[in-house]
């Protein structure tokens, strides 16, 4: 029987619906889509796509660390963009967070709308240290 457990941390925004920040099972962690919400204030971060992307990746990292994982252990990400014209900017910031090592597989898609009308959301799957 497969055991699964929820991952929670106050270093990333609380779930705004009936889901977990992350789920650990079978040596993996699935990080729910993170949006650019400051975990302390509960508000979207001020600024544009650069600030939003950094906050999203910081939130992803926080959930990973709470699960006993890290950005270096990520095997797959999905990036959701409100505007594909932001791709180059997001890609440059993403490259800073995932510098070195084996880069994760990734998909990037443009969507009509994201929660709280933010510009970027990222989900991830990573290995978990035993």
How would you describe this protein?
It is a single chain. The chain is α+β, with helices and mostly antiparallel strands and 130 residues long. It has one domain (4-127): RutC-like (60s Ribosomal Protein L30, Chain: A, 2-Layer Sandwich), CATH 3.30.1330.40. Helix content is 22%, strand content 28%. It has two helices and six strands. The chain has helices at 49-66, 87-97; strands spanning 4-7, 22-25, 28-34, 74-81, 105-110, 120-127. The protein has a six-stranded mixed β-sheet, with helices on one face. A hairpin with a 2-residue loop joins strand 2 (22-25) and strand 3. Helix 1 (49-66) runs parallel beside helix 2 (87-97). The longest helix is centred in the middle third of the chain and has 18 residues, at 49-66. The protein starts with a strand and ends with a strand.
List keywords for this structure.
single chain, alpha+beta, 60s Ribosomal Protein L30, Chain: A, 2 helices
Based on secondary structure, the structural category is alpha+beta
Compute the number of structural domains.
1
CATH class descriptor name: Alpha Beta
Question: What is the helical fraction, as a range of percent?
Answer: 10-25%
**CATH-defined topology:** 60s Ribosomal Protein L30, Chain: A
Strand content: 25-35%
Discrete helix count: 2
Please state the second-level CATH architecture. 2-Layer Sandwich
